[in-house]
Write a structure and sequence with these properties.
single chain; 291 residues; alpha+beta; two-stranded antiparallel sheet
């Protein structure tokens, strides 16, 4: 029970930080310069500019239907936190007197996006959302199998910014696109950090030497699994390990030192849990662990 209460307090603090940061990005930067963000928040901001309805009313009105629709799939706790978070953001925009930070349009676009992205990310880490874009994308992609969630979000924002060009003007729309990219990059950074994990797979005739260099020199765990050449049919060991993106250059250099002909590929991981833990700077990899 104490752990559950402690976690909920942590979630409330994270969501509160997220609401205040997003409010700063919207009210302290974007509104005075006639810029918008992407996603459902951007739709709310655009409608507020072309209608007489205040943003703090439009924001929950447009977001909440997506939260309500996703109630069954995402869970009661998530839905309640998200409703409270969006309501808190609407109240913040209406009541908190944020300063108009800078008249510089470039700084406004970049730092407005930074604050909004950080706000959304902190809210997500607290188990809530401030923007229903991904929920809307999930609902649409579930109905149309040819569309992935990322495709829906991209298409949604392309349409939004094209509409912004005709509504706000070319300059404002282009600055708004910059805001969106700044928000997206900041969101990724806050969620995954500078140590974003990357998986590396190595196929080499000198697999054993490479594995020893990785486990001994870099103090990283590695998993070995069996594979067969697609053309030769020869059995070979395939090395797989998880590193941070800051270590990619070091690992590539190490592998090429051992075997310049080694075949390797990387792909970013959206999350790592359970099988990896950090202890005194060493990553231990679960599975068929070697070293």
């Amino acid at each position: 029970m104490k752990t559950k209460i402690k976690n909920e307090i942590k979630n409330v603090l994270l969501v509160t930080i997220g609401v205040l940061a997003a409010g700063m990005g919207i009210k302290g930067f974007l509104l005075s310069s006639n810029f918008i963000d992407g996603g459902v928040t951007g739709v709310s901001m655009l409608l507020a500019k072309i209608s007489s309805i205040p943003l703090f009313i439009l924001l929950p009105l447009i977001n909440l239907p997506f939260i309500a629709t996703a109630y069954k799939t995402l869970g009661r706790a998530f839905a309640i936190r998200s409703i409270c978070a969006i309501g808190a953001l609407a109240f913040t925009l209406a009541a908190v007197p944020y300063p108009d930070v800078t008249p510089d349009l470039l700084l406004t676009a970049i730092f407005g996006g930074v604050f909004i992205g950080a706000g959304i990310a902190f809210a997500m880490r607290g188990g809530a959302v401030l923007d229903g874009t991904e929920i809307a994308a999930l609902l649409i992609s579930s109905r149309f199998a040819v569309l992935r969630v990322g495709d829906v979000i991209l298409l949604f924002n392309v349409c939004l910014f094209l509409l912004a060009i005709s509504t706000l003007g070319v300059n404002e729309a282009l600055y708004s696109i910059l805001t969106y990219f700044a928000a997206a990059k900041t969101l990724d950074f806050v969620l995954y950090g500078i140590d974003e994990y990357t998986a590396i797979t190595v196929i080499s005739e000198r697999n054993t030497e490479i594995r020893e260099r990785i486990t001994i020199d870099l103090k990283r765990g590695a998993t070995i699994y069996k594979g067969y050449g697609g053309m030769s049919g020869v059995e070979q060991n395939i090395l797989h390990c998880v590193i941070t993106r800051l270590e990619i250059g070091k690992v590539k250099h190490l592998i090429k030192e051992v075997d310049p002909q080694a075949f390797l590929f990387f792909h970013p991981l959206s999350g790592v849990e359970g099988g990896v833990m950090k202890s005194k700077g060493i990553i231990h990899h679960a599975g068929n662990n070697v070293g």
